[in-house]
Specification:
Structural class: alpha+beta
Strand order of the largest sheet: 1-4-3-2
Distance between the termini: 28 Å
Strand content: 15-25%
Shape: globular
Number of helices: 3
Amino acid sequence: MNEPKFPLGQVVTTPAALEALDPESMRNCLARHAAAEWGDLCAEDREENEIALRCGLRIFSVYRDRKGVKFWIITEADRSSTCILLPTDY
């Protein structure tokens, strides 16, 4: 796994995500997120994340766990926290 490109801050998970997602998948994807491996994002959103890295903006990634459940990881602009959530939690 690549080295982290930004701090995650406090990592939190919504109750729905905790119930639905595979824990190992969450850990692996959290490491990918921190390493700037954005998962299932379109080219435009990938570019937005690259700008966010340089300018200190919110960072957003999309993944699927090993059961196929889609989830998001969002790191706040100030890097104080990162949330793992389901799209329906937003």
